[in-house]
Design brief:
single chain; 103 residues; 3 strands; 15% strand
Length: 103
């Protein structure tokens, strides 16, 4: 982790971007106060999700896992029944009902 002032960062931006590309984290300061952090971006969430889905598909094809199939959500069923009873939904009550089996 390196620290650099705004002026030096502006004057030597290419140098610091190369350091970031190599994995370094750059802390940007303004009058000795940290104002920013420059680092490599984290992988896109959709990329991570697709990697997970690919892994799950692969494991399912090998017969190592069997995915659960749910046609209706428990929460959806509770919400529908609560809506019939009253206009507003009691989210705390719904949460507690879904947690009853865990207590």
């Amino acid at each position: 982790m390196k620290s650099v002032g705004i002026r030096e960062l502006k004057n030597k931006l290419s140098k610091y971007l190369k350091l970031v590309k190599d994995g370094e984290v750059i802390i940007v300061t303004d009058r000795n106060e940290i104002v920013a952090e420059i680092k490599q971006p984290i992988p896109n969430e959709s990329d991570i999700n697709s990697d997970i889905m690919n892994y799950l598909n692969e494991q399912e094809e090998k017969g190592k896992i069997l995915r659960a199939v749910r046609t209706k959500s428990v929460i959806d069923t509770i919400i529908k029944s609560e809506r019939k009873k009253r206009v507003s939904v009691d989210w705390k009550g719904i949460y507690q009902k879904t947690r009853e089996d865990r207590l």
